[in-house]
Design a protein that fits this description.
Strands 3-4-5-8-9-10-11-12 form an eight-stranded parallel β-barrel, surrounded by seven helices. A two-stranded antiparallel sheet has the order 1-2. The protein has a two-stranded parallel ribbon with strand order 6-7. A hairpin with a 2-residue loop joins strand 1 and strand 2. It is globular. Helix 3 packs parallel to helix 6 and helix 7 packs across helix 8. By secondary structure, it is of the alpha/beta class. It starts with 7 loop residues before the first strand and ends in a 14-residue tail after the last helix.
């Protein structure tokens, strides 16, 4: 059996292969009204196509735990029962195709309340469905973003509770795996990094203090998330700063802490919390960070970042650099990548009955 098409079992959930889809925002939900934040026909068609294409695990895009936690007014949310019911349509279909449905729970922090990327992505105000952002410290992400309000200790506790409530709703919506978004400069990442966290209380300063909020969220989600279902965490392994930021060394140390708090897999990305940095991109450019975590800890990892080629993906797994690969833009370009990879490698992937005459 090829490495790409070997099943992966975490707790009591078995994922049929190692070809996984990472969270990618679609900015396509209603910004106001009773359907605010709820998935619609676009989301169903988007995720259904990748499931019929053989993808083993689909992580639904960053889904906000509160209205103020959205990146944009057009993002998905899971703070009410209307959203839960809308998600059930998607999770039922994905499961029927043999794909494991997962969801990323998120809070955008100081990078919240922005327009859709194809509209420029600039911050928006109340006249465009926007709101005031919050963060660990009153430090703007860049010159375009407003200065966020600093969260009080009571407000931090409220956000922790919002993550737990969102996890309960995700379970009711039919998701088998939850992922906590701790990367890309959003709220949890902002607390982790000394670049964005200048607090002097129990949530700032030392490594232990800066990781406190993240671990409180993990503990709160793990408490309500069933013990037989996996919990993932997405991290930015480095901020690509010469000094003053979160580093790969921090990530390795943090991975061990996450493991001790009940996280089952680390989804390893990078960047997003510091503006204007130069990131040396290229095929598989983030894989070494995942490989290091896998080598130096006991926590399983998933690799992401310009993984496009079948041979490249197979080699990452066969070499033990990661336990799974997350294909982002490549799955946008080719929803059936997994089926084509199985044909090339001689692996097995579920094919919908309707497709048997053409494969």
């Amino acid at each position: 059996m090829t490495a790409l098409f070997e099943p992966c079992t975490l707790r009591d959930v078995t994922i049929p292969n190692r070809v996984w889809m990472p969270p990618m925002c679609q900015y396509s939900a209603a910004p106001e009204g009773p359907e605010t934040g709820a998935p619609n026909d676009w989301h169903f068609a988007h995720y259904a196509a990748r499931a019929t294409g053989g993808t083993g695990l689909i992580i639904v895009e960053a889904t906000a735990v509160s209205p103020e936690g959205r990146i944009s007014p057009y993002d998905l949310g899971i703070w009410n029962d209307t959203q839960v019911e809308a998600f059930r349509r998607i999770t039922r279909f994905l499961a029927a195709q043999g794909t494991v449905p997962a969801i990323q729970l998120a809070h955008a922090g100081r990078k919240a309340s922005t327009d859709r990327p194809w509209k420029g992505g600039a911050p928006v105000g109340p006249d465009a469905h926007g709101w005031d952002s919050v963060a660990p410290s009153p430090i703007a992400f860049d010159d375009r973003h407003p200065v966020p309000a600093e969260l009080t200790a009571d407000q931090i506790a409220d956000v922790v509770g919002q993550f737990a409530a969102a996890a309960r709703r995700a379970l009711a919506a039919g998701f088998e795996i939850a992922e906590i978004h701790g990367a890309h400069g959003y709220l949890i990442n902002e607390f982790l990094s000394p670049h964005s966290n200048h607090r002097t209380d129990a949530y700032g300063g030392s490594y232990e203090n800066r990781t406190r909020f993240a671990l409180e969220v993990v503990d709160a989600v793990r408490e309500v998330w069933p013990q037989d279902k996996p919990l993932f965490f997405r991290v930015s392994a480095t901020e690509w700063l010469d000094e003053g930021g979160w580093t790969a060394d921090d990530t390795v140390r943090f991975a061990a802490d996450l493991r001790a708090h009940g996280v089952d897999l680390l989804d390893v990305s990078s960047g997003g919390n510091a503006s204007g940095v130069r990131i040396p991109t290229g095929p598989g450019y983030q894989v070494p960070f995942a490989a290091r975590v896998k080598q130096e800890t006991t926590l399983p990892v998933a690799a992401v970042g310009l993984i496009t080629d079948v041979e490249q993906a197979e080699k990452i797994l066969a070499n033990g650099e990661a336990d799974a690969v997350l294909l982002g833009r490549e799955l946008l370009r080719n929803p059936s990548w997994a089926r084509l990879a199985a044909r090339e490698l001689g692996g097995e992937v579920r094919v919908p009955d309707q497709y048997h005459r053409s494969v």
